[in-house]
Amino acid sequence: MLEALLDLLLPTNCSICALVGPVLCSDCISKLPIRERQVSRGEVCGWAVTDYDETAATLVHQFKENQRSSLAKYLAVPMLAPLLSLGESFAFGKPTVADLSAMVLVPLPSRRANTQKRGFSPAEEVAKSLRRLCPSGQKPLVFNGLKFARGVADQASLNVSGRRANLAGSMVGSKFLVGRTVLLIDDVVTSGATIREAARALGEAGVAEVRFLVFAETLLKTNARK
Ligand SMILES: [Zn+2]
Question: Pairing state of beta strands 146-148 and 171-173?
Answer without folding.
Answer: antiparallel
